[in-house]
Structures are given as C-alpha cells and as structure tokens.
Amino acid sequence: MTKYTFKPKDFKAFNVEGLDARMEALNEYIRPQLHELGEYFSDFFTSQTGETFYPHVAKHARRSVNPPKDTWVAFATSKRGYKMLPHFQIGMFEDQLFVMFGIMHEAKDKATRAKVFERKFKAIQQLPDDYRVCLDHMKPDKPFIKDLTDDDLKEAIQRAINVKKGEFFIARAITPQDKRLKSDKAFIAFLEETFDQFLPFYSA
Asked: 20 to 30 A from 12, CA-CA: which of 52, 93, 109, 190?
C-alpha cells in the first residue's frame, strides 16, 4: 500500500466523462495522495527555508460544467492562497506528473518577482537536461530548457515580467509509467531532488 505515489490507473481519472463523475474519480484516486504530499512537503519547505509553508490542494470549486483536465497541490507561505505568490507545485494531467516552481500571472508584484529568473538566467541554463519550462500552467506543454535558444528563454522571461497574462515556471515532468512512481521511496526521492534544484530560485 502506497501513501504518496500514483499508479498508471490513477491518471485515468482524467478520462472519466462529466464534471461530477470526474470529481468523484479525483477524490478517490488522486486527492488522498495530494493531501499526504501536502503535509510532507509543507514541512520540507518550512525546514529548508525557515519560512512557514502551507499546502493548497486544488478544489476546482468554481467549475460548474467542464471537468478539470489537471489537478495539483501547491505550496506557498500564505494560508489564504498561493496564486499571488511564488510557489511550488506537484500536479497531474492525464499523461504526466509535473513538478514546478514559478510565478503565475495573478501574482502580486509579478514584474518584480519574475526578475529572479532574469537574474538567475545562467542557473536555469545549467539545470539538468530533463528540466523544462512551463509558460502557461493551464496547458500540459512544457518544452525542455535544453531545446530552447537563449533568445527563446529570455523572451519567455521578459513576457512573464512585462505582459499581464505572462507567467514562468521551471518544471520537471514524468509519464504515468515512469519507474520513479513505482514506490513511495523513489517518488519522494525524485520530488526532493527536484525541489532541491528549485529552491535557489525561491531564495534568490
């Protein structure tokens, strides 16, 4: 019995038709692990940064028709929410588990906060080859950093700084069949390794 990780069948919750039925599937197959991950990693971030972090598991409460295509737990230093702050995420689409750190378009002082990625441009380029960027958290697309030109990356960061709807996340993503999802131990190790790479961008 696993506590934190996800099986390939859990991702099939996103194939369930209809809002109510899909929410039931998410509640059964995915949200329990997200809550456990929320407890574990809010303590992890609090320990690593010296600031108190709070977990926020997606509720999808505003939806009335369209079922969610993704779900997540986010970590930020506010009890009230995470969208207005730089934050960490663990989440899922039907074809991927993703891990991210960055700034959403709704963030307060977004232009100032997003400049961390401008300052640490070289550090982004030096992330391992399987690290990616996400420029729209609502879409599954996450190009590999190694596949972007310097100009592509600079333009993406500038968009997050200067355009109202712009956002920028550094990310990592794995498939539902990935061996790092086979056990809690392997999954937690993967997540901690990823967040260790992200933390210097938070504290910069």
From this structure: 190
In which residue are the tokens 């109202």 written? 164
Which of 202, 10, 172, 11 lies closest to 99, judged by CA? 172
Q: What is the pLDDT of residues 155-166, one digit of tens each?
A: 999 999 999 999
Contact 82, 74 (CB under 8 A): yes
Those residues whose C-beta lies under 8 Å from the C-beta of residue 154, and which sit 6 or more positions away, are 121
The encoded tokens of residue 68 equal 């969610």
Distance from the first to the final alpha carbon of the chain: 39
The CATH architecture of the domain made up of 8-203 is 2-Layer Sandwich (3.30)
Residue type, 192: E
β-pair partners for 54: 76
Q: What are 168's strand-pairing partners?
A: 103
Give the neighbor-by-neighbor strand order of the sheet with 87-93.
Answer: 54-57, 70-76, 87-93, 96-103, 168-174, 132-134
The token duo for 199 is: 């933390």
